[in-house]
């Protein structure tokens, strides 16, 4: 067996399952999960129709590079969304089976396992980054998010010797779980470091279309264009239809950017078998070419966050994020750790949230997930409000000692 498998941590939801072992949730309440970031809004009918109408494509082997029409649709969306010159669909765009699969595979393709490589990633983070680093024979280096910087990572604190060994930088903007976005000034500094040290930047942008202000988040390709980096050297972005179009089960995304890197990644994927199903390609074209359903989806999230955030803010330290569909709340004033909070809330009110320490690592003397919880506001408004009201009631009861609820174990 690959010895690097022994370095992998249990996935956050496996830790959550173990945390809840032996707990019988209060039968007075129905289950509501804010734990997993799985969109619950309905898949648009026109996407479903496009998928069904393309079922004849199941009789054909798909090519790894995807159809010309799909790559053109993705390139067209990037041009419209970010105001950049059109990418070359033949050399700068590659369809993938969801961003998760591609983010993992990318490290396997670009890391030299014989070189003591480091993979720099945010902390807290999407656990795929860490696992990809370990299985590529590299070591992750965690850059803590900073609450005073609106949960942005302070890359200026990373020592030069780390950048010298870095071969890959994963970043997520908008971030999971914090919702933080990368500014143009931050991008300028990161590009300068990439030029100096030669590492590749993998920008995970799967939450880019869910935002709460009037301005959409700055994209990596957009930043590169504004800074005169027309070749997108050493930059690759990953995006997906899962959150944008409510089709997580379709597993449809793309990689785009530096043509030389995309070419090598295509070679890798030709061997690994990462070709997208023809019906999914057809449905993806329909999704990327339509923006109306995206606006409607975003407005649903805005309505939810506008109603739910003030409720939760009355009992815990939480604010509206820049973007994304998570709330990253500090529960320290409840007197419970993040694990204790999640376990008791599940026991007493049958609401699932994810402890912040399950999404972060101890690094540089602290764990940025400690005493925080992640809440995914993915359900419809009524269910989300019900969950928020239960959390408020739970936190209110915590302030009335002694806390003797028999459902807590």
UniProtKB/TrEMBL annotation:
Keywords attached to this Swiss-Prot or TrEMBL record, sorted alphabetically, are:
Aminotransferase, Transferase
Q: Which GO terms describe its biological process?
A: lysine biosynthetic process via diaminopimelate
The record's top EC class is transferase
Q: Which cofactor does it need?
A: pyridoxal 5'-phosphate
Q: Which Gene3D superfamilies match?
A: Aspartate Aminotransferase, domain 1, Type I PLP-dependent aspartate aminotransferase-like (Major domain)
Q: Name one GO molecular function term.
A: succinyldiaminopimelate transaminase activity
Query: What's the Enzyme Commission number for this chain?
Result: 2.6.1.17
Aminotransferase class I/classII large domain sequence ranges: 32-377
What is the protein name for this chain?
Succinyldiaminopimelate transaminase
**What is the organism of origin for this protein?**
Zemynaea arenosa
């Amino acid at each position: 067996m690959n010895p690097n498998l022994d370095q992998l941590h249990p996935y956050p939801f496996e830790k959550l399952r173990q945390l809840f072992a032996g707990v019988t949730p209060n039968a007075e309440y129905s289950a509501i999960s804010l734990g997993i970031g799985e969109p619950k809004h309905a898949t648009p009918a026109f996407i479903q129709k496009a998928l069904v109408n393309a079922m004849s494509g199941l009789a054909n082997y798909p090519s790894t590079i995807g159809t010309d029409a799909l790559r053109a649709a993705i390139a067209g969306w990037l041009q419209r969304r970010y105001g950049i010159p059109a990418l070359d669909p033949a050399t700068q765009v590659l369809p993938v089976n969801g961003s998760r699969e591609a983010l993992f595979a990318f490290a396997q393709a670009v890391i030299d396992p014989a070189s003591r490589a480091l993979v720099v990633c945010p902390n807290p983070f999407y656990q795929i980054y860490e696992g990809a680093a370990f299985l590529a024979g590299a070591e992750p280096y965690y850059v803590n998010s900073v609450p005073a910087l609106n949960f942005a990572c302070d890359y200026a604190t990373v020592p030069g010797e780390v950048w010298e060994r870095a071969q890959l930088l994963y970043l997520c903007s908008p971030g999971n779980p914090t919702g933080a976005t990368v500014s143009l000034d931050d991008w300028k500094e990161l590009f300068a470091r990439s030029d100096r040290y030669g590492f590749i930047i993998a920008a995970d942008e799967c939450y880019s279309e869910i935002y709460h202000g009037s301005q959409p988040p700055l994209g990596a390709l957009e930043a590169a264009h504004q800074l005169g980096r027309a070749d997108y050297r050493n930059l690759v972005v990953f995006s997906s239809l899962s959150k944008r179009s409510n089709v997580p089960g379709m597993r449809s995304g793309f990689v785009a950017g530096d043509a030389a890197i995309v070419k090598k990644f295509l070679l890798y994927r030709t061997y690994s078998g990462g070709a997208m199903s023809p019906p999914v390609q057809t449905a993806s074209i329909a999704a990327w070419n339509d923006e109306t359903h995206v606006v409607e989806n975003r407005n649903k999230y805005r309505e939810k966050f506008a109603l739910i955030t003030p409720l939760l803010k009355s009992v815990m330290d939480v604010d509206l994020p820049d973007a994304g569909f998570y709330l990253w709340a500090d529960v320290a004033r409840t007197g419970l750790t993040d694990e204790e909070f999640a376990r008791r809330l599940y026991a007493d009110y049958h609401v699932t949230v994810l402890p912040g320490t399950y999404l972060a690592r101890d690094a540089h003397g602290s764990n940025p997930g400690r005493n925080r919880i992640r809440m995914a506001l993915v359900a419809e408004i009524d269910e989300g409000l019900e969950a928020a009201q239960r959390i408020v009631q739970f936190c209110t009861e915590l302030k009335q000692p002694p806390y003797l609820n028999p459902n807590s174990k």
